[in-house]
Amino acid sequence: MSSRDLVLGRIRRALADVPRTEEPADVHVPRDYLSTHAPADATEMLAEHLADYRALVHRTDAAGLPGLVADLLAARGAKTVVVPPGLPPEWLAATGAARVADAAETTARELDAVDSVVTGCALAIAETGTIVLDGSPDQGRRRITLVPDHHICVVRVPGQVVDSVPQALPRLSPARPLTWISGPSATSDIELSRVEGVHGPRTLEVVLLRG
């Protein structure tokens, strides 16, 4: 007997007492399981898990954000930065880096020559340390966060932080281009040698914006 026959046999035995006319919607399945483990402080859990993934975490308020973004770009020596169309202009008010618009005609080669990108986010998940982008105006096209080597992502806390993936899904639209980011881009070879920047930015900096 093959593995396929074994698996199909088990399925047939499990369904032996199910009427052939029965549809999945005919049977109510309770969905009363917990959607979160209710962390004491979701923002602190998010910061901890982001750091576990080697993202660089910063904290500030609205007044300090322009200066912090300028400092982060200067520390990278960034002379150019991609700007989504809906990014609040005050976020970049203190930097002298040249703005590169998120334009449809911009090629991947041109984006690769840009030093940094600054975006907002759709939400962040505390339990997994995940940032979710959905292509909204303050985030821009997916490719602008995948090609440049340095990504600064601003998360408004606590409003954009949810505890868990089950809490995140109802707040996201499956019709939008969702990008789920857990730390900077990285992969490991067969010897578990970590290589960063393979299919996304090598450096991810997350700014937790209070208020």
TrEMBL record:
Highest taxon of the lineage: Bacteria
Pfam families found in the cross-reference section: LUD_dom
Record domain LUD: where: 93-209
Xref: PANTHER family: LACTATE UTILIZATION PROTEIN C
Name listed for the protein in its UniProt record: LUD domain-containing protein
